[in-house]
């Protein structure tokens, strides 16, 4: 296989060897690099309803991949479903929603509760490094990585965070996310959509991430579905760039948009990727 093709893509493929990254090259790959639309559903395994709604959207081709929670009430079953159906599931790190699995070690629950209390207490807690919680962050991240390996039989190729807390200062500055993994970047905004300070902060965090991880070019949430111009702009970007679109099909409005097929009316020029795919080199800045 040629190894000097600048259009190579990195894909997470759960049906391949565990933990292996597949490199696609050649003319078909070159065409794909013009744009990639990834629709990723969060909270796989949180509970039965959430898992089933995501699964239905994946089977309909409206969702590319999902992000799996561990130590939750449906985590065990969801992992089995993902492996049986070849569903691309990354790790959805969770610091803020209580673990709901029937059996969860008391020390882990205690450490996570400390993190949740801190991170949810103030708006800017995420951006502040807390030296007193260093051990708790290390413990909770390591436990979730280990549990993912137990459930899925491999290390996660891709990591993001519940409430986007994988981007908190204690995780970033302690480099707790394994190097080389695909990691979700900050939300992408146009000039004027957020304050200059907000955009500069996000850009700095994304640059820090890009030193150790692979990123999509742009990242958006599916809602709000109105105004229509917002969706039109997002799907237009996906014709030339790698765009991740986050969704929660457990929410009725998003579920209807995806499972009802409305999404396909918007994606004619940028078809939904069959799994999570990012370029192996180079990422556009937002």
Describe what this molecule looks like in 3D.
This protein is α/β, with parallel strands linked by helices. It has one domain (9-279): TIM Barrel (Alpha-Beta Barrel). It has ten helices and ten strands. The strands form two sheets. It has a seven-stranded parallel beta sheet with strand order 7-6-5-4-3-9-8. The two termini are 33 Å apart. Mean pLDDT is 87; it is low at 1-8, 13-32 and 281-286.
CATH class reads: Alpha Beta
Largest sheet: 7 strands, parallel
CATH superfamily: Glycoside hydrolase/deacetylase
- Low-confidence segments: 1-8, 13-32, 281-286
The computed structural class is alpha/beta
What is the general shape? globular
Quickly describe the structure.
The chain has 286 residues and is α/β, with parallel strands linked by helices.
Task: Give keywords.
286 residues, three-stranded antiparallel sheet, 16% strand, seven-stranded parallel sheet, globular, alpha/beta, single chain, disordered C terminus, TIM Barrel, 37% helix, disordered N terminus
Write the layout of secondary structure elements.
Elements: E1 9-12, E2 21-24, H1 27-32, E3 36-44, H2 48-59, E4 65-68, H3 75-85, E5 89-93, H4 106-119, H5 134-152, E6 158-161, H6 169-173, E7 182-183, H7 196-212, E8 218-221, H8 228-237, E9 242-247, H9 252-259, H10 262-266, E10 277-279
Parallel strand pairs: 3-4, 3-9, 4-5, 5-6, 6-7, 8-9
Antiparallel strand pairs: 1-2, 1-10
Helix pairs in contact: 4-5
């Amino acid at each position: 296989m040629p190894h000097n093709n600048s259009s190579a893509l990195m894909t997470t493929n759960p049906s391949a060897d565990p933990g292996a990254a597949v490199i696609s090259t050649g003319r078909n790959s070159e065409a794909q690099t013009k744009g990639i639309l990834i629709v990723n559903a969060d909270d796989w395994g949180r509970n039965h309803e959430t898992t089933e709604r995501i699964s239905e959207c994946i089977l309909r081709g409206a969702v590319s991949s999902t992000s799996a929670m561990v130590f939750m009430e449906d985590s065990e079953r969801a992992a089995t479903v993902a492996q049986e159906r070849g569903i691309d599931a990354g790790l959805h790190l969770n610091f803020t929603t209580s673990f709901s699995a029937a059996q969860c070690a008391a020390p882990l629950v205690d450490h996570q509760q400390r993190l949740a209390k801190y991170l949810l207490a103030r708006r800017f807690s995420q951006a502040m490094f807390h030296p007193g919680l260093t051990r708790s962050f290390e413990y909770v991240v390591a436990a979730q990585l280990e549990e993912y390996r137990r459930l899925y039989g491999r290390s996660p190729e891709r990591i993001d965070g519940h409430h986007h807390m994988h981007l908190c200062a204690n995780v970033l500055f302690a480099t707790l996310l394994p190097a080389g993994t695909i990691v979700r970047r900050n939300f992408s905004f146009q000039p004027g959509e957020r304050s200059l300070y907000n955009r500069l902060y996000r850009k700095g965090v994304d640059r820090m991430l890009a030193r150790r991880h692979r990123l999509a070019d742009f990242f958006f949430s599916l809602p709000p579905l109105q105004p229509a111009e917002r969706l039109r702009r997002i799907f237009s970007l996906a014709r030339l760039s790698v765009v991740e679109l986050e969704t929660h099909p457990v929410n009725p409005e998003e579920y209807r948009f995806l499972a009802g097929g409305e999404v396909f009316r918007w994606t004619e020029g940028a078809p939904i990727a069959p799994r999570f795919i990012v370029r192996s080199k180079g990422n556009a800045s937002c």
